[in-house]
Design brief:
Helices cover 56% and strands 6% of the residues. The chain is mostly helical and 125 residues long.
Length: 125
């Protein structure tokens, strides 16, 4: 899967999350449907890691056990049951929907991020 990144910081944040996930090369080259949804989720939240630090006091991180576990401002996953007010909340809502396997309406108030959302949707398949 070829990703497009907003900037070097987005790419670095995504790569950090992938490194924390401790995935094998085989898993990355031939991801399961669940792993594709997880990668799309990480790709989208990586866009706003600085905002999560600034507004929430910490960034998201991954802990690799038998299953992947998400740490950081995870309370936002419940708080963003709706679409949220701020872009970092809105993208989290979309990322969560992708992770759950839900259909995403690409027409959101995050038009400037639509290419990244489309990329994540394409990854999920």
């Amino acid at each position: 899967m070829e990703f497009i990144f907003k900037d070097q910081h987005h790419e670095d944040a995504y790569n950090q999350l992938i490194e924390e996930a401790d995935l094998t090369e085989i898993e990355l080259k031939q991801p399961s449907a669940l792993l594709r949804r997880q990668l799309a989720f990480l790709y989208l939240i990586a866009l706003f890691q600085d905002d999560y630090i600034h507004y929430e006091g910490e960034a998201f991180y991954v802990e690799a056990y038998e299953e992947l576990s998400l740490g950081g401002p995870t309370y936002l996953l419940e708080a963003c049951m709706g679409e949220g007010t701020y872009p970092h909340e809105q993208i989290l809502y979309i990322a969560k929907k992708l992770l759950q396997g839900d259909v995403i309406d690409i027409h959101t108030s995050l038009e400037e991020y639509s290419s990244f959302i489309k990329c994540a949707i394409h990854l999920v398949g």
